[in-house]
Amino acid sequence: MPHICRKASKEEYEQIPYHEKELAEINLRNIFGYCFNYVSVITGPYLTYRTYRDSIVEKYSSDEKLTEPCNRVILEKFKTILIFGILRFLANYFWPLERIFEDEFYIDKSFLYRLWYIWPASFFFKVRAYIVLIISECIFAAAGVGAYPTVFQSSPGRGPRTKDPQLLELWDGTYDFNTTTNCYIYTTETCLSFRGFWRNWNRCVQYWMVMNVYKRFPSRRYREGVTFFVSAYWHGVSSGYYFSIAMSALYFPIEDLCLKRLKSAFPNFPIWLKVCLWINQLFAFSYMFIAYQLLSFPRVWKYYNSVYHFGYIVFVCQYALAFFWPNISTMLFGRKPKNIEEMKENTKPDGFKRD
């Protein structure tokens, strides 16, 4: 029998969990208000309908106690904006982004200089993006949207993990703004993998992508690639978005295989290896995302030709080395690299090897 949309009966409504009941009451007016509320129009689709509704209906969202935490969060974030604004000014003064659009950049500058320029260009891009994301968070905080009692355990994009009213009895009156937190900057900048970077970048939009694209796409094998392609299309139709965002999905299998080989050799990564992984993550991001700033295909291709597609060659070499590493290890050392599982099987619970 085909599924027919209908209004829940009184008995069915009573069985719906408290934090889901508001979703059973949506009508056309609610949808219109959600789509065109001024906060979302200014900042983008960072919040769910539940978050939008809670900011209007729930008592804790209209409590006078909310004013102080909102003001405090806005002030803290404005301090961060000021710091990033200064950094952006300095970066633009010493390494102007416009330089990569000039013919002299490709005629007078050396290969090493052109390749090195991905770092200041990447820095400029990140600082600008962080400023935009933080301003969005300030707009949400100013409107009181996304502020939840800490006992609800909110997460970026998703909102409260639970809205059990009994938890409010234990509530100490403090709020968190995790629901509209777009980016944890420290975690984003210190992660060791490119995949880890993406997991911490623009998390509210990522949540939307995961729920509406990744989890709904029928093929598990191609979910990730399709999600990043949709993300690139979300940004626009310029080639630079696809060279930067969509191509990121092609690098994940390379990185995953490399990390798998490294973990088999180093169960606990030493400091020097962590530094190398961090630099590699920065290089992968910087090399791909210079295309985001060049945008048009002629400019993107001109730049990559000028550096002889060095980054892509590095990525291919990484994959080849990781893929053939068992054979290479056998030729060089006369044995295959130990696997972590094999090491565990050959080790007693007290840490001594079996005979």
Q: What would your notes on this structure say?
A:
- The chain is an all-alpha fold.
- About 60% of the residues lie in helices and about 0% in strands.
- It has helices spanning about 10-15, 30-35, 40-45, 50-55, 65-95, 105, 110-115, 120-145, 185-190, 195-200, 205-215, 225-235, 240-245, 250-265, 270-295, 295-305, 310-325, 325-335, 340-345; strands spanning about 150, 175.
- The N and C termini lie far apart (about 65 Å).
- It is globular.
- It has two domains: about 35-185, no CATH class; about 195-335, no CATH class.
- It has a two-stranded antiparallel ribbon with strand order 1-2.
- The protein contains 19 helices and two strands.
- Helix 11 packs across helix 12 and helix 13 (about 240-245) packs antiparallel against helix 15 (about 270-295).
Shape: globular
Number of helices: 19
- Chain-averaged pLDDT: 84
Count of domain modules? 2
Ranges with pLDDT <50 over ≥5 residues?
Answer: 1-5, 343-355
Tell me the distance between the termini.
64 Å
Order of helices and strands: HHHHHHHHEEHHHHHHHHHHH
The strand count comes to: 2
Measured by DSSP, the beta-strand proportion falls in under 5%
| Strand order in space, largest sheet | 1-2
Protein structure class: mainly alpha
Helix fraction?
55-70%
Tell me the major beta sheet.
Answer: 2 strands, antiparallel
Radius of gyration: 25 Å
